[in-house]
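worker-03 picked up job from queue 'complexes'. Input manifest follows; two sequence lines, order preserved.
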Amino acid sequence: MNPERLAQVRGILRLELRKGLLGRRALPVYFLGLLPILPVFVFLVVSTFLGGPPEEFRGAGGAHLFFIALFQFILRFVLFFGCVWIFMNLFRGEVLDRSLHYYFLTPIRREVLVAGKYLAAWLTATAVFGGSTAVCYVAIHGYLGGGSSALAPSVVAVLLQYLGVVALGCLGYGAVFLVVGLFLRSLIVPAFAIFTWESLNTFLPAFLKKVSVVFYLQGLIPLPPPDGPISILAEPVSLWIALPGILLFTALTLVAAGLRIRKVEIAYSSD
Amino acid sequence: MRDDAIVFDNVSKFYGEVLGVNRVHLAVPPGITSLVGPNGSGKTTLMNLMTGLVRPSQGRIRVLGVRSDDPERLGRLVGYCTQFDSFPRGFTGRELLYGYLRVHGLDARAAGERTDRAIERVGMTAASTRKVAGYSKGMRQRIKLAQALCHDAKVLVLDEPLNGLDPMARSEVIALFRDLATEGRHVIISSHILHEVDMISDQVVLLHEGYVVAEGSIRSVRGEMAEHPIQILIRCDRPAALASRVFEVDSVVEARIDEARGGLLVKTKDAERFYLAFNRIVLENGVKVEAVTPADEDVDAVYGYLIGGSGDQT
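worker-03 finished. Artifact:
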């Protein structure tokens, strides 16, 4: 990429990060980011009043057990709907605010605009949901495993893996919802349709499991949840398939978004 | 195609079934060009087309030789003060322009300097650190103008730029348009305020229901309308005496005292011949003439003639 385009992308990042982290539209994102912290906080307070955590949750093993369940909530609900909100509104929100022309009047290739906005949204999502994950993880391990265990190298290494999964999740879901937001006007129906599909993933035949983001992410979780009694098992994918797979999928959806954005017109109203 | 003009080559734009503009052939030269027509006539569509915000359904547009679907080059050439009274949320006027210039690829220093210059040029320095959301209509109009100007565009497309401005600001902005046109830029304006259009335009494009019905200077457009005699208002000390003599001129088809406008209204098919004969009549009769002005050589009258005198001008 030439220096001028890099400067343009930096310009977009400046504006979009500010809008994404400090703007009015950031409130639902922060709300979702706080959602997993809330039960952790309640658990810590109640446990303290009751004289300590239940036996099965004590120690590093208990902390892992607790976090395995919590991370499923983060991945399947918080991160999913956070990405719905952030990425579907990347262009749709600009149209609703009647501010898309602000970008369309700059001397920037539309594809570069897509890339810049997507990158800013990914950074926003990763920062908020990664931050939320880290807070929960450290709090749980600090309380259940003892203060010092939260900083043990092996525990931090697992946290970094979780954060990597969050970053990849934002990448994959972000790409899906960016494209959905560009092609479809409605936000609710496609979001819930995809949510249902991703939620049913456990019960889908092995070949259909692969047509989902969560399947690839589950394979990367350092401590995956146990399969339920009625889940259909599929061979988990390795990091070396999941990572390039998600990156390739992201690249393809960005290409689709780039092609789509070329045809987008400003039509808030006609004279 | 001309590289010094904004060229529309058989351009049509449809929004589904609805016509935006149809079969537009235009070559807009440098200077101030006004787009005139009522709501729905296609003014904003033409502006959106030449700025690349919408794409033609048919035909080609080139702005100083650059295709309208080439945003990378077009964005450097064109500054657009849109009719949309909306901005990205949460920004001050200065942040808005600065951010815009950073997306243009300028570094922090250059963007800062240009931002300050543009803000100063539209007289918004004092209010530039306030949030745009708290601006009055006139201030929003000015900051949009600054946005159109800040990257030193050669083509300025200004949709209703005088809306919301008080008379003082209006005259300042009109002076600014003149300066920009003098610098050799294309200044394309749409305005509802027809007497201001008359005052400032080098040429006009008259639109009606998506069609360009006339283009050029008002005088030349008016001159081509042979079926409508040219009206001339003469203010003098003895209008009745003058009225009895002007019929000596062959081209005069009507002469009457116009009480409302306080003078003699003459209708002639050939203004040049009339003016020559008029000088002689005045000298021979010793009439003291205060003023001789064309009475229907303005956008209002010309537009009325072209679309059948509906009088529903915007």
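worker-03 released lock.
The mean pLDDT of chain A is 88.
Chain A touches chain B through 35 residues (CB under 8 Å).
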